[in-house]
Amino acid sequence: MGSLFRQIRAAIALNILSIPQRLWLSVATVGSIALAVGVLMAFLSLAEGFRNMLQGTGSDTVAILLRDGATVEINSGISRDQVRLVEAAPGLAVDAAGDPLLSGEVYVTVDAKKRNSGASANLSLRGVTPAALQVRDGVRVVDGRMVAPGSNELIVGRRVSDQFVGFDLGRELVLGNSVWRVVGIFAAEGVFESEVWADLDTVRNLFNRGSGVQSVRARFTGADGLAALQAYVEAEPRLNLDVQTEAEFYADQSSGTVTLISYFGWPLAICLAIGALAGAINAMNSSVESRARETATLRAIGFRGVPAFFGVMVEALFLAFLGGLLATLCGYLVFNVAGWSVSTLGEGFTQVVFDFTLTPAVALTGLVAALVIGLLGGLAPAVRAARLPILQLGAR
Fold first, then answer.
1. Paired strand residues for 108
2. Which of 46, 218, 383, 388 is the least crowded, having the fewest Cβ atoms under 10 Å away?
3. Whole-angstrom Cα distance, residue 198 to residue 189?
4. From CA 291, how far away is CA 284, in angstroms rounded?
5. With a cut of 50, which residues of the chain have pLDDT below it?
6. Ranges of each domain in the chain
7. Per-residue pLDDT, 70
8. Distance between CA 37 and CA 367 in Å, rounded?
9. DSSP SS3 for 173
């Protein structure tokens, strides 16, 4: 048994050390595997970034109320009388004046142009009350100020200011049929940075939204506060509303899009992996051919077929690992270090901007995929190397 292990180590060393003799073929194999794994990682990082963006938006201490049956704000509608009933609900946190921390809001879409391409896109314009900042965790004004009630003023998310034309601090622009002025920029974790905020009454008047709202956000006092709010809404027949935490709402929003991105990513990566697999098989067959005489010599002095099998397999896995490592390194530098942002359609076909995120789980998935390609690519050549007769090997 010890002799067999020594033979396996010797065969593995021979295969690995002879890689420079097939340098360009080995480089092509590593590159094709890196491409397949890189595409997979890109889609998984895209899905992870979108998930993190939405899940980072939600709070466990803020409730969002929508019309019963509505899954997104744009399809919801809540009357002014219903908002007043919610204001009287138990379990709500209050400000220093004793008023409930609650913000009724409307949600409309407006046109904008992307900075990088000049292409038209839809943005979310949200009409908010002065309590909007108090019912959102982690949202802070980083430049300028909050909008004044009754004014045509805007406060925009930092990503909107970075990615779209005309939303710089102090600029005036036309949204709908009205002229607006950007008076502030805010930072936030998650989707809010892709929004534009204005005074609630101004948005309702200029966009003909009546006196109602589409959603209500309310900060509650602990788990008991949420339960009290939900019980109050269920017991009040005039409130045909759904109540859930922001965290639950945005988790539900993310699941469908993340699944869709994954459905696109895996098939494309598999198609590229088939090409990488063909390259790996070709490289391993070339490895077997180029070392035919060395293998014959080893077999003649007592080496078995098993060491030849493991030599080819380890070489294939080594090249595959290098390909996976290359894809991981490139992905980390592009996505996590340089920071690569992308925009996609969110609620109401509006643009949501977020970053690709290469997580350890995504990197591990990519490396495993690379090793699977190497395993499948090296299997047939390894079996072939182990089974070739000595006379046939020596004749090559």
1. 125
2. 383
3. 19
4. 11
5. 348-350, 391, 393-396
6. 2-55+253-394, 69-239
7. 86
8. 8
9. strand
**Tokens at 232, concatenated:** 């109050």
Q: Which two tokens stand for residue 296?
A: 């014959």
Here the tokens at position 229 are: 């709010």
Give me 219's structure tokens.
């900060």
- E strands, the chain, are 62-67, 102-113, 120-128, 140-144, 153-157, 172-175, 178-187, 195-199, 215-219, 241-245, 341-345, 351-355
Q: Which residues contact 67 (CB under 8 A, 6 or more apart)?
A: 75, 76, 77, 78, 240, 241, 242
Residue showing tokens 């270090």: 337
pTM for the predicted model, two decimal places: 0.69
CA–CA gap between residue 392 and residue 299 (Å, rounded):
12
Sort 298 into a burial class: Cβ within 10 Å, 0-12 / 13-18 / 19+. buried
Using the Cα atoms of residue 170, residue 174, residue 180 and residue 184 in order, give the sign of their dihedral.
negative
Helical residues (DSSP H) of 210-358, grouped into ranges: 222-235, 246-290, 292-300, 305-331
Instruction: Sort strands 120-128 and 195-199 into parallel, antiparallel or unpaired.
Output: parallel
Amino acid occupying residue 64: I
Model pLDDT, residue 348: 47
**pLDDT (tens digit, 9 = 90+) per residue, 34-82?**
888 888 888 788 777 777 766 666 788 899 999 998 888 888 999 999 9
Q: CB under 8 Å to 118, separation ≥6 — which residues?
A: 165
Pairing relation of β-strands 172-175 and 178-187? antiparallel
Structure-token pair, residue 197: 């905020």
| DSSP state string for 293-317 | HHHHHHHHTT--HHHHHHHHHHHHH
pLDDT tens track for 155-175: 999 888 888 888 999 999 999
Tell me the residue type at 17. L
